[in-house]
UniProtKB/TrEMBL annotation:
UniProt key word ATP-binding: yes
Name of the featured protein: Pantothenate synthetase
Oligomeric form and interacting partners: Homodimer.
Catalytic residues of the enzyme: H37
Organism this protein belongs to: Alkalibacillus flavidus
Family, as annotated: Belongs to the pantothenate synthetase family.
């Protein structure tokens, strides 16, 4: 495994892979890796000749400077974990390499972005779209892997790939959870002991919402949101949002055979956690939990 710090070297490697006819699987991350990230890496390892993982904490997508400065980092540990997974290249540029001067262009999200994190983290998805467009152009992967914990990100990137005709297959990967149901997240380390005890209620709340949809064919969006809220009210974090929408379009207007997402964000003292469940129109889980 090699760690690559410059765009020029990464481009050379990409060209060599193409010349040899190798497929490239790409896993974009912000580091401080856990088993959720490694699930994406394993999937990419199964499906491609060459696996590239980027580790880059992208300042453009942070709408709160305290969240950026306290974002956990441990590159040496990340390197060890990725070597054990048989990764070929880590792309690990610094901020000046990715953003050497003020940008001349900007990304604007006009679909799937006015709800959930798009509504509560202004500028977040625009920053994600910018860095991914750059990374896609640098690495030119055949497949790219994203976790469904960030389900809105999956929907937004699907739109990006389609709009800009990137010749890339998007592979969504189900959310990996701790034994008590809490979705794995790099931000879990910033929970206090008490918050960590309460945090599995987020998953419990989503399960209650899913049960309502599965068992009551008269269910309404508001009834689902109230059910989820009744469980989330048992914890000390502040509810940032709870919503029930069509997926991947993310509209209030859920048609008969649409998939449905119930998504929540909870702000604890130092950590804002997100989670969701995606359900088929018949009330079944779309992806394993
Ligand atoms: N528990 C998880 N299961 C599956 N994929 C995950 C999980 N957590 C993160 N991912 C995916 O890993 C990729 C990189 O995410 P990122 O580096 O932001 O990690 P993160 O743990 O989600 O961090 P944070 O929760 O602090 O945003 C994204 O595609 C994300 O959806
Ligand atoms: C895709 C990503 C690496 C872009 O910075 C980030 O949004 C993330 O970790 O999900
Ligand atoms: N996992 C999404 C990246 C972020 O929270 O900024």
């Amino acid at each position: 495994m090699k760690t690559i710090k410059t765009i020029e070297s990464m481009r050379e490697i990409k060209k060599t892979c193409y010349a040899q006819g190798y497929s490239i699987g790409f896993v974009p991350t912000m580091g401080y890796l856990h088993d959720g990230h490694l699930a994406l890496v394993k999937k990419s390892r199964q499906q491609n000749d060459i696996v590239v993982v980027s580790v880059f904490v992208n300042p453009l997508q942070f709408n709160q400077s305290s969240d950026l400065t306290s974002y956990p980092r441990d590159f040496e540990r990340d390197e060890k974990l990725l070597a054990e997974e048989g990764v070929d290249y880590i792309f690990y540029p610094d901020v000046n390499e990715m953003y050497p001067h003020a940008l001349s262009t900007d990304m604007r999200l006009i679909r799937r972005g006015d709800v959930l994190c798009g509504a509560t983290r202004p500028g977040h998805f625009e920053g994600v779209l910018m860095v991914l467009t750059k990374l896609f152009n640098i690495i030119s992967p055949h497949r790219v892997y994203f976790g469904l914990k960030d389900a809105q990100q999956v929907a937004v990137v699907d739109g990006l790939i389609d709009d800009l005709n990137f010749d890339i297959e998007l592979v969504p990967v189900p959310t990996v959870r701790e034994a008590d149901g809490l979705a794995m997240s790099s931000r879990n380390v910033r929970l206090t002991t008490q918050e960590r005890l309460e945090a599995p209620k987020i998953n419990e709340a989503l399960e209650k919402g899913q049960q309502l949809i599965a068992e009551d064919n008269q269910w309404t969006r508001m009834a689902v949101i109230e059910k989820v809220e009744s469980v989330l009210n048992q914890i000390n974090g502040d509810i940032d949002y709870i919503n029930c929408l069509s997926y991947p379009e993310l509209t209030n207007d859920i048609k008969h055979d649409d998939d449905i997402i119930i998504a929540v964000a909870v702000q604890f003292q130092q950590s804002r956690l997100i989670d969701n469940v995606i359900i088929t129109s018949t009330g079944d889980l779309k992806y394993g939990r």
